[in-house]
Design goal:
This protein is α+β, with helices and mostly antiparallel strands. The chain has eleven helices and 14 strands. The two termini are 33 Å apart. The structure holds heme C (HEC) (5 copies).
């Protein structure tokens, strides 16, 4: 599996500089999404609401970028050469388009696509690897970078290359998992193909990802979480993403129990960071978690249970770091009656 994935990476390799340089579309007149809107209004509307369309302007990204404004970030979040030039001048309308039509569809001035419609006016470059898993890997799979500090220590430094340790591992996780034969698009373009590319910010997608079951063992609440719907680990993507499972009773909030699932990192000898713990749930995996409810298990009021997908390192940002966008989404929420919760089967 991994070898065919590596082979397919070579196939789409010419399309993306993988964050190490900006993208040259070779078409000064086709850079703005406005150049496509007139004839593709539906696609434009979907894209404008998508995370691709919001990749530069969204508050979560902007806060992280402010902390460390590396040009490397611009290479994926507003990837065109002309967008980088705008960012260097303090920003502008083209940079604000984030990952736009040209970043995905225009190379050497030509429209790229997997197929060409008979009605198309374009001199389309038809490529079988367009939109495939290796194509998505051009931005969705990368290792920690090596950063050379500025000589005068005034700027954020410069990324010079990549280390061996994954920072976003989505495509490799997918290649190792039970859905390796399904393209990313088969889950991420919706039922009617759309440019919304729903994912971790979409209520339906996150509700579909994990199945939750509960039982009791003594005074412990046992929660099993099955990654039944995602083609990769949950969560995947950005390194700060994590899940928080919480159980509490309204009458005894101080007895709240919680478990965090995510990744932890430590400095690596090659200059980047390496993963030292990874409790994200693999595709197809079922995870059993135990929450001690103690003597509160017997109280009459229901137990509230919630699984959250947290986008940021700080679910509850401190003053001055608040965001205008939500820092988390509720994946699953349930009220449980202890007495009618079944006993766990013997293992
Ligand atoms: C003058 C109208 C017009 C403009 C402007 C236009 N397109 Fe198209 N495009 C079409 C038509 C018509 C088709 C074929 C039917 C369809 O897919 O909607 C098409 C098809 C496509 C396809 C599918 C491949 C193909 O050739 O059939 C892609 C991808 C595409 N356009 C991208 C773009 C992008 C990106 C832009 C902006 C840079 C753009 N188009 C601007 C009219 C236009
Ligand atoms: C993140 C990359 C990405 C961005 C951004 C993007 N597209 Fe696409 N586009 C794709 C992929 C992938 C396909 C589907 C290829 C397939 O199914 O074979 C596609 C398909 C198309 C098609 C063919 C019809 C269809 O919907 O399948 C058109 C037309 C099109 N895109 C136009 C645009 C326009 C216009 C924009 C900007 C408003 C845009 N795209 C932004 C990746 C992108
Ligand atoms: C040019 C770079 C680029 C390409 C190519 C690309 N993406 Fe993305 N994608 C991004 C960036 C950057 C974001 C994050 C935007 C943000 O939220 O800040 C993103 C976000 C997403 C999200 C939303 C994640 C969330 O948490 O909501 C999905 C789903 C996604 N991409 C799927 C795909 C798929 C499938 C492909 C291949 C067909 C693809 N992308 C190709 C750069 C890219
Ligand atoms: C079997 C369906 C399926 C396949 C195949 C799949 N995904 Fe997903 N993906 C999901 C679901 C469901 C979610 C929502 C759960 C979540 O956010 O983790 C998701 C979430 C995401 C996210 C948001 C990150 C996060 O964890 O919040 C990104 C980015 C993403 N997918 C990219 C990809 C890419 C790239 C591929 C191909 C290598 C891919 N997906 C293949 C179902 C799938
Ligand atoms: C090689 C491409 C690449 C580079 C370089 C890159 N990113 Fe991203 N980034 C992505 C992709 C793809 C996603 C989508 C995965 C997801 O949503 O979890 C993403 C998601 C994010 C998110 C999550 C946004 C959300 O919607 O929750 C943040 C924050 C972020 N990136 C910040 C940064 C910062 C800051 C830098 C520079 C230090 C950076 N990125 C560099 C590709 C890149």
């Amino acid at each position: 599996m991994v070898s065919s994935w590596l082979l397919s990476l070579v196939l789409a390799a010419d399309l993306f500089p993988r964050g190490l340089a900006p993208i040259d579309a070779g078409a000064p007149d086709k850079l703005r999404a406005a150049a496509c809107t007139g004839c593709h209004p539906t696609v434009h509307g979907e894209w404008a609401q998508s995370r691709h369309g919001l990749a530069w302007t969204n508050a979560i990204f902007q806060r992280e970028y402010r902390d460390r404004p590396l040009e490397w970030c611009v290479h994926c979040h507003a990837p065109l050469t002309e967008q980088l030039a705008e960012v260097r001048r303090g920003g502008g309308a083209l940079a604000d388009e984030g990952v736009n039509c040209a970043a995905c569809h225009i190379r050497a001035g030509r429209v790229l696509s997997r197929a060409k419609s008979p009605a198309s006016p374009h001199d389309t470059d038809v490529r079988a690897d367009f939109g495939g898993t290796a194509y998505c890997a051009g931005c969705h799979q990368f290792t920690f970078p090596t950063i050379e500090p500025d000589p005068d220590k005034k700027g954020p430094g410069r990324v010079t290359g990549y280390t061996a340790h994954p920072m976003q591992d989505t495509v490799a996780q997918h290649a190792r998992g039970p859905h390796a034969d399904k393209e990313c698009l088969s889950c991420h373009r919706g039922d009617a193909p759309s440019h919304r590319f729903p994912g971790g910010h979409d209520d339906e997608m996150i509700a579909r990802a994990v199945r939750m079951e509960t039982c009791r063992a003594g005074t412990n609440l046992v929660v099993t979480l099955a990654n039944a719907g995602a083609g990769h680990n949950v969560p995947t993507g950005d390194l700060h993403r994590h899940l928080v499972l919480r159980a509490w009773r309204a009458g005894a909030p101080e007895k709240l129990q919680e478990i965090t699932l995510g990744r932890r990192f430590a400095p690596a000898s090659d200059g980047g960071k390496r993963t030292v713990a990874d409790t994200t749930i693999r595709a197809g995996e079922t995870r059993r978690l135990e929450l001690p409810m103690g003597r509160f298990a017997a109280a009459p009021e229901p137990i509230s249970l919630e699984l959250r997908l947290v986008y940021t390192i700080d679910e509850f940002p401190f003053r001055g770091r608040e965001l205008t966008a939500p820092t988390f989404a509720t994946m699953l929420a349930r009220e449980l009656d202890w007495k009618t919760t079944p006993r766990c089967a013997r293992r």
